[in-house]
Amino acid sequence: MTTPPKPNPADTGTRLAEGTPVAHEHVPNALTETSVRVAADDLGTRPGSPSGEVPEAAAVSVWTTAQTSPAAQRKGRYTAESTAHPAKMLPAVAAHAIAHYTEPGDLVLDPMCGIGTTLVEAVHAGRRAVGVEYEPHWVDVARANLDLAVEHDVEHEGRVFHGDARQLSALLPPEYVGQAALVVTSPPYGPSTHGQVSVVPGGGVQKYHHLYGNTLDRGNLANIGHHRLLSGFTRILAELTAFLRPGGHIAITIRPWREHAELIDLPSQILACGRHAGLIPVERCVALLARAAEHDLVARGSFFQRDFIRKQREAGLPLHLIAHEDVLVFRTPLRRVAGAAGASPSGNFRGSAGRARLGTSPTEHSGAPESRAA
After folding, report:
1. What are the DSSP calls for 153-198, one per residue?
2. N or C: which end of the chain has fewer CB within 10 A?
3. Lowest mean pLDDT across 101-115, 207-221, 356-370
């Protein structure tokens, strides 16, 4: 019997049943049914199933994580400096994953924590949190956000370490080995981040806060190219296995983006990364970036998304605003095996996505990019 889902404190407003299609034939930017449901045999072993078998007609979850605006979700919990990050995870996405895959007191880890969204939502939910961030400025901002949580009388531990997540075993203290119940993270999207805009008299719209640090820094995964990014992220996932407890989960938020008019099917490629790192795929979910109204979706696209869509439509390419991002959920084996890190997983994730390999040609998917989750 499948374990019933836990309530999500980050959700407000209309709730959708698990696997509920949210498409509407008159809404151009709504999700299609096939984008929120996958065949049961594509999911491998699902958590909560004693027999390890996938229930017939199983459906992935639709996370209604944009019922309030991003600004409303961050109000009071994040410092003003947090706004400058070029790509921030919705707090409700992190909160939903934490509520569903952990219990109070569990340890939550983010190896690329940015402004600390995962960590802040974890400590507010009564969990312990630890993160790693490559850029010193965002380390300081993440720590400031955790200090703000302490000012709100949050007593649970939250720590941020500075360094390259590809060297995770050298960065985190041994006390965290085998302790994490959940990892929530996302790979950087490089040039597809959006940032902020201002209107300068006589100078038009000016873009700022849209880059990850120094673009010449080749140590930053956002600056080393798509295929090297995949290789680096695979290494990070493999490093994480030492810090996850048996059966621990990794939730990765991700979406495709266009590069020189070609769609980069990043979700399928990250699925391949997880399998190469020895992780077992168990779910493929949808986290809404649009509010789910009674009959349609209310898009919350950024200025850059809307501008990109407008230009593409003027050029004759009928794209739509992105209304969701994929959430790939993996788990570690239920028993530790010596030397298992990086080995082939025992679970299967069949279908076209499961057959994806690093560097494969992307499949078509309409939509415009926004940002990495941080």
Report:
1. T--S-EEEEES-GGGHHHHS-GGGTTTEEEEEE----GGG---EEE
2. N
3. 356-370
